[in-house]
Amino acid sequence: MSDLQGDVQAAIDELVEKGVERGLQVAVYLGGEPVVDAVAGVADPATGRAVTPETPFYNYSVGKGATSAVLHVLAERGLIGYDTPIAEVWPEFAAHGKERATVRMALNHSVGVPGIPLTTTPEDLCDWEAMCAAVAGAEPWWEPGTAIGYHAYTFGYIVGEIVRRVTGRRISEVLLDEVAGPLGVAEQLYFGMPADRHHRLAVLEDAPSPEPPPEPPPGLPAELPDLPMFRAAPMSLMPTAAFGNRPDILAADIPAGGKMSARAMARLYSALMTEVDGVRLISPERLREVSAISFEGVDAVFGNPVRWGLGYGIGHPGAFDDPHPTTFGVPGAGGSAAYADTKTGMAFALTKNVLSTDFTTATTISDLVRRRLTG
User: Fold this and answer.
1) How, if at all, do strands 354-355 and 205-206 pair?
2) Which among 35, 231, 326, 347 has most CB atoms closer than 10 A?
């Protein structure tokens, strides 16, 4: 496996040298053991501070993998069931016909509340009580459980408030006590990150924009099309470097995303499958349920075919036609990704600070690892 470490290191060094990436981490676990822990580049170009394996990166939806893991640990202990109505622990969520919506529907993105108010500001996102009230009081876009659509921001508040109602503690506290702490990554995995630790974070930057689109022909409207995704959140909250570098956003519990190292996420995914230094998060039986297809169809928000397990996308990127998918995980806007493969026992995570519009880097490095492990 030392050769695999060397191959990954060479590949990410080249990406930095070519200017494709500024700083990145790659971590791979196999059967509960680390086989790759590689870093390259700088975390902060202004100071030249180098990326280390412990450097946390703000990763957008990659954090949903940790959010789901917290809930699964609670389910493992019998504190919540997947078919429990959300309103049973959070009565306000029953508004507008959502009384039969279940925890399972929240996890597989079929609960029907994919949007936040279009007046929502970054400051609002940091107000837990206000956001949960808005989500609970929302009218569902469809009858819960009948369609599927990505819950970009609302997933974190729904699952996080379920956790709070069940435990009486913020999800960031439960993450520390039940997941990050036991796995030895308490300083590498956060939702809300204390302000006195922000200096350790990688600084995000946006990838150079592609050529601007040509002007529309005369007579055609120039405004954005009326796609559902534009009704799910205001454009001011779309993932950008400026948004992800804000101190208030970094300090807040917004568990649709998180602040993490690749090592922390690879350890987490590995511990969902097997023991990692004596820690296993869930049973083999629960792993099978979590990683099986729970709902699939055309995403009602983004329009693409999707398969969801319980909190995780199912299937390796680019292999949607696989009839027996064995990978589960969540990538994030900007190009970072983390997932596990139950067939091989491999857990993979890649974090980076240049926010790209695609997953080329993650796919390239992931494919390299998969070829080496299966070849």
Assistant:
1) parallel
2) 347
